[in-house]
Amino acid sequence: MSRVVIPKASLPGINADSLNRFRFRVMNKNRNLYSNWSVIYAIRRSNDDVDFVENPDSYSISSTQYRIDLAWFTPDISAIYGVSARYKFYNSVTGFYRWDAYQSLGERVSNSVSIARKPPSYANETCYGAQFVVKAKEYPNVENPYVPVSTIQGAGSVNYITTLTSHGLTVGDYVNIDINNGASDLSSFGGIMAVTSTPSSTVFHTTGSIVLGVTTPTGQDNRVQKVSGNNKFITPLQQFLA
To answer: Is this structure's pTM higher than 0.85?
Structure first.
């Protein structure tokens, strides 16, 4: 039998027990022969999730000197969420900031997470803050390939990153951006961001400090990776309190 996929939007409303009940029968391609009706099946469903882009007040993030607390609304507290993070560090000697590697923190059967300040990897560094991605549980957890960054520049109050279009990113995708500092502090271009437009090349943007007309340093590992999965929301960079 061929596989049939029914969009969730085409299913009838769930009942008071959060169940969809249905049955089916099969017909031939000439549509003149039908099977008997199947038994009645039931699928348990959670209520529809919140659109966090339209409802940013449905999650909260706060910090102390040593800890960041993140919580979000969910209609089903037994749902499983995946949480990933990037830390940002400050070097008191160079005055530069750098992003640590994007990493999965694992899964939570909960709608909140608290995480402590990450110890620095290098001398003269302090953990400045962190950024988070919250997504639905993935089957399987997919790691997308990296795409090289070609040009970065600043204009007005917005920073831009340009890449080639062969990787198939679309507006609304989340991307993980690795930018290494050359002679300038380029950390404002890094982190987890959203694709905002896809002209002849793909552009990502974030507000921050301005670096005009900067081309990525030769030999530096500057790259973009699509963040896979059903991403619920990304947080802005949350600074640890001094």
So the answer is: no
